[in-house]
Amino acid sequence: MTIYNIALIGFGGVNRALTELIAAKNQLWERDLGFRLNIVAVSDLYLGSVISPNGLDAKTLVDAKFEKGGFGQLSGGSAEADNETIIKTAPADIVVEATYTNPNDGEPAVSHCRWALETGKHVVTTNKGPVAIAAPALKAFAKTNGVRFEYEGAVMSGTPIIRMAERTLAGAELKGFEGILNGTSNFVLGRMESGLDFASAVKEAQKLGYAEADPTADVEGFDVRLKVVILANELLGANLKPEDISCKGVSGLSLSDIEEAAKANSRWKLIGAAVRNDDGSVTGSVSPKRLGLDHPLAGVNGATNAVSLDTELLGAVTITGPGAGRIETAYALLSDIVAIHSAGASSTAKEAA
Ligand SMILES: NC(=O)C1=CN([C@@H]2O[C@H](COP(=O)(O)OP(=O)(O)OC[C@H]3O[C@@H](n4cnc5c(N)ncnc54)[C@H](OP(=O)(O)O)[C@@H]3O)[C@@H](O)[C@H]2O)C=CC1
Ligand SMILES: N[C@@H](CCO)C(=O)O
């Protein structure tokens, strides 16, 4: 049985949910997946940082009501989030990056990933910034250092769009895709259809753990833009940057726009799309679209996401599933660790007696 030592960078909704899963399911994973997870370090802007080479008790971490700088009271702890020291020196096999997504330059998460990969640690992340903005460089660091950079949760949370498209649909010849790629905006549009005002609907999405730290990224389309870049570069072999993608969000839609659409048997949806052009280039876009009720994406509700992949050999293949949520996204991290384990990239993990 393998034990993976992990370091958590950021201890908000997603990494707390992963910690909850570790507390509840380590034994099950040991039996069914062949490994268990041991948290040897945590760093968080609000709580501080801690290294514990023997491991921190997951249930205690979740249950304790730490105040600001609270990790400073723990053995091996500090009231400051010393990410660089934690990432470079903690005895971790895997660094789990779940700090906030910076849609502009991806920092500080790009540096977090780089420090981990350079020091021979695998990285799993749900953070869209480093993947959209620095994936080629980070993949190169991973290769040079014989470790892996995994990021299934960066698009569609725990729903396996990236691995599904890359592995199971290999050879189907993808030509483009269109989809609902932001749980918050889709949830907000649905709540507005029930008559709730925009600001209250955004607050609900924040409470449910769907929204970004700054929900402007959700409602202005910046989050979808990152996801279009990730899917286009990963699946269509493009080399797009966020600024290459035209981008409009849902913040301009009023309750009367929503009502008018309903009267015309249609619904507003925020659509992210990319298509390969005849000359081989790839064009991406993000904008609200009024879809007729018979459109395959019109019935996608709440924080659910869906992507329709346009393939040469199969026609349209649509993947639907959770697009946001704490536990759902923590599952994406687990699926990345399963991928690392399955690839046999476990040379740094300890074999338990
Ligand atoms: N929630 C979801 O449904 C999904 C989230 N994601 C992505 O996963 C990541 C985590 O999401 P989530 O947990 O919901 O976000 P949260 O905002 O709940 O958590 C992020 C945590 O990281 C901390 N943090 C921010 N900057 C730093 C830093 N420089 N060093 C250390 N800690 C830092 C924050 O502290 P503080 O609060 O003090 O700033 C917070 O505790 C984000 O990048 C998000 O975009 C991806 C898919 C789905
Ligand atoms: N804020 C994002 C999280 C998932 O990336 C959303 O609502 O879709």
TrEMBL record:
Top-level enzyme category: oxidoreductase
Gene Ontology molecular function: homoserine dehydrogenase activity
Domain Homoserine dehydrogenase catalytic: 160-338
Residue ranges of every copy of the Aspartate/homoserine dehydrogenase NAD-binding domain listed in the record: 10-152
Pathway: Amino-acid biosynthesis; L-threonine biosynthesis; L-threonine from L-aspartate: step 3/5; Amino-acid biosynthesis; L-methionine biosynthesis via de novo pathway; L-homoserine from L-aspartate: step 3/3
Enzyme Commission number(s) from the entry: 1.1.1.3
InterPro entries found in the cross-reference section: Asp/hSer_DH_NAD-bd, HDH_cat, HDH_CS, HDH_short, NAD(P)-bd_dom_sf
Entry keywords, A to Z: Amino-acid biosynthesis, Methionine biosynthesis, Oxidoreductase, Plasmid, Threonine biosynthesis
Family membership noted in the UniProt record: Belongs to the homoserine dehydrogenase family.
Name of the featured protein: Homoserine dehydrogenase
